[in-house]
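In line with agreed milestones, the collection of sequences with tokenised folds has grown. A representative record is reproduced below.
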Amino acid sequence: MKLFLLAALLAGVSLSARAQTYYLDLTNQALTLSDNTLGVEQVVDGRAGQPPIGIVYRGLNGKSAAVAFRQGLETELTSFLQIQLPVRAAGGHTVVLCVRSLHIGEIMGGKKQQAIAELTADVYEQITDG
């Protein structure tokens, strides 16, 4: 029953937000990791049914807008992470990330607005023996 209600809610949200979409832009974002030995080869969208990423509120009247990547989650996150976490030849670990859940939203309240992001991913690394 809860699953049906959640599915109905998500379907309603996607329909109402279809006219308004907020596209994420990772161009000016940076990851800061000390002694990084991790390189990302690829990001795979492993979310069941590939649901919307989230809802944000835009403009003075707080109209809701669906959150999306203009070129898709796999393409944009792969590109971003390959730049931020390049594959290193010596001593590095090359991985594939399988995104299991991703939710981006906003918490509205009073004078303060707070952005939130939650990501769950499986990390796969090919080891030398296959």
